[in-house]
Amino acid sequence: MIKALICALLLVTSLSAAGALPSRQQVDGMLASLGADNQFDRSKSIDWGILPGPFFTPELGLGMGMAAVGMYRPDAEDSTSQNSTLALKGFASSTGAFGMSFENYSFFANDSWRFFISGAISDMPTYYWGTGYQAGKNDGNKEKYTLQSLSLTPRLLYRIAPDTYFSLGWDISSSHAKDPQGNLFSEEAAGESVFSSGSSIGLNYDSRDNVSNATRGQVASVILTQYAPQLGSNSHYTSLEAQYGRYQRLSERSVLAVDVYSRLTQGDVPWDRLSQLGDDKHMRGYYEGRYRDRNTFSAQVEYRRKLDWRNGYVLWAGAGTMSSHTDQLGGGPWLPTVGVGYRFEFKPHMNVRLDLGIGRESAGFYFQVGEAF
Fold first, then answer.
1. What phi and psi, each to the nearest 5 degrees, are found at residue 206?
2. Is residue 2 part of a domain?
3. What would the mean pLDDT of 224-251 be, rounded to a whole number?
4. Burial class (CB within 10 angstroms; exposed 0-12, middle 13-18, buried 19+) of 22
5. Residues 6+ apart with CB under 8 A from 142
6. 336 within domain boundaries
7. Predicted local confidence at residue 21, as pLDDT
């Protein structure tokens, strides 16, 4: 990873010295042809923008991602709801991993109704360490396999009070551990293939000015999901997700964002649905799936600064912990995360982010659409 970053820095430096870097006007012109012109055309049913970007994560290695983001308004006469967005993402990496995902936020009827849905499909060579902090800490314990996964999570939200929503949803996921090179999966009650299906109810308070890139307001949500064989799931278990975020504008160009997140599970939780520390939203910089247990808690604070033109940067720090029992959560080891990120605004209130996250003996370089939280 360090070699790749050094090579990239040397390339940019040499191009700059040779006068080969394009001007802002030239970049705007090139991006306009891709729809990434930092404008929203309301006359279009969906105004699309496309942007590629590199990444390097502990689990995927060096890769290239492509993001297509469409902005739209279901009701042109609705002046209350924020712009709806649909993000389509794909990636391929040096490890042979590839995948596609989508994320949609729709706002209807003067923001009385909201419909959120996300999904993903991927084929990814990776490692499995087992359950618990000690298992993840022991690098000699890992087992290589290929994770073939599919997920779909729709949620319908209805406003029951100012900024307050009640939600109903569904969570479907399928995971298959292909060609495991060890015996860790033979010790799992769920086996190598897992299918989970569950219904959810939730309560959400959201006073943010924008879901994808908030500059003020708060969000607090609790989602309870019940998985059962009667709903198509292989096993019976529950998950409780709780999240709180606060966004404080410090100046015209800077925002301080705080995020607190916890996921608690009970029952016969399969290996692929255990709570995890480490992804592109929480605990950036850790190998996704390395640290997993029944319960996790993490917190992070991020300073966001808008520079001139369409540029910006962020700085963050955070920590997370895990446990097998809820009453032990917070009493075990804590993992730190710090990082720095670059932001490029390619649609109004919609950034592409390049984040370098550093954890304990681990690091990752992420390319994503929208803020981490």
1. -145, 105
2. no
3. 97
4. exposed
5. 127, 128, 129, 290
6. yes
7. 57
